[in-house]
Structures are given as C-alpha cells and as structure tokens.
C-alpha cells in the first residue's frame, strides 16, 4: 500500500513550530507504506522551506529525495487532461492538488497525507468513494 504525500505534510515535518509537525512526525514513525510525492508538489514545498525556514531546510528535502526516502511520481500527458477535468469540477483546487488527485486515481492510491482536509474531502475520485486522509 502506498501513500501520496502533499506539500503541507512535507513542510510540517520540517517546521517544528507548525501545528501539524507533531501529528505528522508521529504518523511517520509508525509508517511502513511507500511514500510517493507528485513532481508538481516539489517546487511548492521547496519554495516554502527556502523562504520560511532557510536554504538548509530546502537542501534537507533534496537530500531526502536523493536518498530515496520518497518516490517521485511524474505526470503523464493524459494526466494533464484529467487535471483539467478535476480543476473544472472543483475550482477551489489548484493544479498541485489536482495532480495529486489524478496520480492517486492512476495508481489506485486511496490514502493522501495532507494538512489540506477541506480540499481533499470534497473530491470524489474515480477509483474510490473518498480519499483516506492522513495523519
């Protein structure tokens, strides 16, 4: 079983002052599933880490990725067409979140690690009735 990881969780794991830091850290300690991050979320989290926590936090993310702690999932051309559909149906969801929905559908992943409950709760994916939101 795999879990898709959203920007907010990656940021919260790095920022000890973030309100999601403790729940995200505790969840990660007991995790045995494969963690996957959309390639679209990486620039977003890198920017937040760099601007809010400094270049060292951004470097730590890249080192974690290089060490294989997260699998990186690319978008395919057909994913982009589905992203457009998701963004039209859920206009409050931006491209990064839509890409996470689409990757989850393509890989048949039901669990998303996110701090963004409002957006992901509203989505009705094609492959399951609703996403299981973690932590």
What are the SSEs and their pairings?
Elements: E1 2-5, H1 7-14, H2 21-29, E2 34-38, H3 41-53, H4 55-66, E3 71-73, H5 77-89, H6 95-107, E4 111-113, H7 117-122, E5 132-134
Parallel strand pairs: 1-2, 1-4, 2-3, 4-5
Helix pairs in contact: 1-2, 1-3, 3-4, 5-6
Shape: globular
Tell me what the CATH architecture is: 3-Layer(aba) Sandwich
CATH secondary-structure class? Alpha Beta
Tell me the helix content. 40-55%
CATH topology: Rossmann fold
What structural class do helix, strand and pairing data support?
A: alpha/beta
CATH superfamily: 5'-nuclease
Our count of helices gives 7
Contiguous low-pLDDT stretches (5 residues minimum) are none
Task: Give the number of DSSP strands.
Answer: 5
Gap between N and C termini: 15 Å
Q: Say what oligomer this is.
A: single chain
Our count of domains comes out at 1
Report strand order across the widest sheet: 3-2-1-4-5
Keywords, please?
Rossmann fold, single chain, 55% helix, 5 strands, alpha/beta
């Amino acid at each position: 079983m795999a879990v898709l990881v959203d920007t907010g969780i990656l940021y919260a794991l790095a920022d000890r002052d973030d309100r999601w830091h403790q729940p995200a850290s505790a969840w990660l300690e007991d995790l045995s599933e494969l963690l996957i991050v959309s390639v679209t979320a990486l620039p977003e989290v890198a920017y937040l880490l760099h601007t809010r926590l400094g270049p060292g936090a951004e470097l730590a993310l890249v080192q974690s990725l290089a060490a294989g702690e997260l699998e990186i999932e690319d978008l395919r051309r057909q994913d982009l067409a589905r992203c457009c559909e998701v963004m039209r149906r859920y206009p409050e969801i931006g491209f990064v979140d839509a890409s996470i929905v689409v990757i989850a559908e393509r890989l048949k992943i039901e669990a998303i690690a996110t701090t963004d409950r409002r957006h992901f709760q509203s989505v009705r994916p094609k492959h399951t009735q609703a996403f299981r939101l973690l932590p």
